[in-house]
Amino acid sequence: MASAGAVLLEARPFRPFKSSEEYLYAMKEDLAEWLTVLYPELRINADNFLDRLDTGVALCRISYQC
């Protein structure tokens, strides 16, 4: 049984990757989706993932809001 604060994401089928770049992009997509569910104010996606988290400032701001 999931806890009251748990967020369920859509299950996705396993997919093989042709290159490490494809794998990295898929990981950024998944992590960006997860972070968006938790912190929509981050406005993060796979394309801006590293830029948004580059300095850590965005995550520090979120941690002080709690």
From TrEMBL:
Q: Which GO terms describe its molecular function?
A: actin filament binding; cytoskeletal anchor activity; microtubule binding
Q: Which InterPro entries match?
A: CH_dom_sf (IPR036872)
Domain of life, per UniProt, equals Eukaryota
**What is the protein name for this chain?**
GAS2-like protein 2
Gene Ontology CC annotations of this record: actin filament; cytoplasm; microtubule plus-end; stress fiber
Ranked from the top, the taxonomy reads: Eukaryota, Metazoa, Ecdysozoa, Arthropoda, Hexapoda
> From its record, what is one biological process in GO terms?
microtubule bundle formation
Q: Which organism is it from?
A: Danaus plexippus plexippus
